[in-house]
Design a protein that fits this description.
Layout lengths: L12 H28 L21 H105 L1 H18 L5 H12 L4 E2 L8 E2 L1 H11 L8 H4 L4 E3 L9 E4 L7 E7 L2 E5 L6 E5 L7 E4 L2
Parallel strand pairs: 1-2
Antiparallel strand pairs: 3-8, 4-5, 4-8, 5-6, 6-7
Helix pairs in contact: 1-2, 2-3, 4-5
Length: 307
C-alpha cells in the first residue's frame, strides 16, 4: 500500500500545510535511517536489490494543497472586503453625525434669531405703548391747564368789568394797557431777543429726544437753554427751574424771547420760546419734533420774561 493512499484532504490551509510538513519530515527520517543502516553494515554485505518507492511531490495530495491555498486567498479576500465595508460604514456614520450636528446648529441659530426678533418686536410694542401713554397724559395735562387758564381768565375778566364800572378812569387805563400789549407783540425782535428767536427758528425740523441738548435733537428745556445761551444767558436745564426765573407776564403782553410754560410756574412740565406774531417755537414731542405753532394750537399756562 502506498504511503499516501489515505491522506485526507482538508479545506483549511493551515491544517493541510502542517500535515504536509509532518509527512515530509517522516519521509526524511525514513531516508536518513536507511542511509545510516547502509553505512553501518559490513562492507561485504550484498547490495540491496529491492527498490523502495519514495513519495513524490505529486503524490503528497497536490490537489489538497492547491485547495488550501485557494481557501486562504478567499479568506484574505473576504477579510479585505469586510474591512472595506467596515471602513465605508464608519465613514458614513461620521458623515451622518457631522451633518446632524450641522443641522442642529442651524436649527439653534434660527431659533435664537426668532427669539431675538420676537423680543425686539415686544420691546418696540412696549416702547410705543409707553410713548402713547405719555402723550395721552401730556395732552390730558395740557387740556386741564387750558381749562384752568380759561377759568382764571374768565374770573379776571369779571373782576376787570367790575373795576371799569366803578370808574371810567380805570377802564380807560385798562384799555390803554391792552393796546400797548398788542402793539408790543407785533414789533419785530431786536438785540438779544432777536438772537434767541433766530436760534430757536433755526432748529425747526430737528428731532425730539428726551434729554436732548442738540445740535440736531432736543427736548423742550434743552432747546430753551441753548437758545438763551446764544445770547450769553445761562438758564437751568429743567423746565420747572426755567419757568421760575425772571418775572411773570400775561399772555396778552408777550414779547419775543419770553419763555412760555405749561403747568404751574414752579412745576412746569413743558416750555417753549415766544417768537412774536402770536406764535412760539418748541420741541414738542417725538411725533412732531421742533415746530413753530400758534398759541391757539396749544395755549400755554403762563409766561416769564427773563431778558
Amino acid at each position: 500500500m502506498s504511503h499516501t493512499a489515505h491522506i485526507p484532504s482538508h479545506r483549511k490551509p493551515r491544517r493541510s500545510a502542517s500535515k504536509l510538513a509532518l509527512r515530509a519530515g517522516v519521509a526524511g527520517g525514513v531516508l536518513g535511517t536507511i542511509a545510516v543502516a547502509g553505512a553501518a553494515g559490513p562492507a561485504s554485505a550484498e547490495p540491496v536489490t529491492e527498490t523502495i518507492e519514495m513519495p513524490t511531490l505529486g503524490s503528497l495530495d497536490t490537489a489538497g494543497l492547491a485547495s488550501a491555498v485557494a481557501a486562504s486567498a478567499e479568506t484574505s479576500q473576504q477579510e479585505a472586503l469586510d474591512q472595506s465595508l467596515q471602513a465605508q460604514e464608519n465613514a458614513a456614520l461620521q458623515k451622518a453625525a457631522k451633518e446632524a450636528k450641522k443641522a442642529k446648529a442651524e436649527a439653534d441659530r434660527k431659533a435664537e434669531a426668532e427669539r431675538a426678533e420676537k423680543a425686539r418686536a415686544e420691546a418696540e410694542a412696549k416702547a410705543q405703548a409707553e410713548q402713547e401713554r405719555k402723550d395721552a397724559e401730556e395732552r390730558a395735562s395740557r387740556d386741564a391747564a387750558r381749562t384752568q387758564l380759561s377759568t382764571t381768565s374768565t374770573s379776571n375778566s369779571s373782576s376787570g368789568s367790575g373795576v371799569s364800572d366803578s370808574g371810567s378812569g380805570s377802564g380807560s387805563s385798562s384799555d390803554s394797557g391792552s393796546s400797548t400789549g398788542s402793539s408790543t407783540e407785533t414789533q419785530a425782535p431786536s438785540g438779544t431777543a432777536a438772537a434767541i428767536v433766530a436760534f430757536a427758528r433755526a432748529q425747526i425740523g430737528d428731532a425730539y429726544v428726551m434729554g436732548g441738548t442738540g445740535p440736531n435733537s432736543w427736548d423742550c428745556s434743552g432747546l430753551v437753554q441753548a437758545a438763551y445761551a446764544q445770547a450769553g444767558i445761562d438758564l437751568p436745564r429743567i423746565s420747572g427751574d426755567q419757568s421760575s426765573r425772571g418775572t411773570s407776564v400775561s399772555l396778552s403782553n408777550l414779547q419775543p424771547g419770553d419763555v412760555l410754560y405749561w403747568g404751574s410756574r414752579s412745576g412746569s412740565y413743558h416750555v417753549a420760546i415766544y417768537v412774536g406774531g402770536g406764535k412760539y417755537v418748541g420741541a414738542q414731542n417725538p411725533s412732531t419734533g421742533v415746530v413753530e405753532r400758534s398759541l391757539d394750537w396749544d395755549t400755554p399756562s403762563g409766561a416769564v420774561r427773563i431778558l
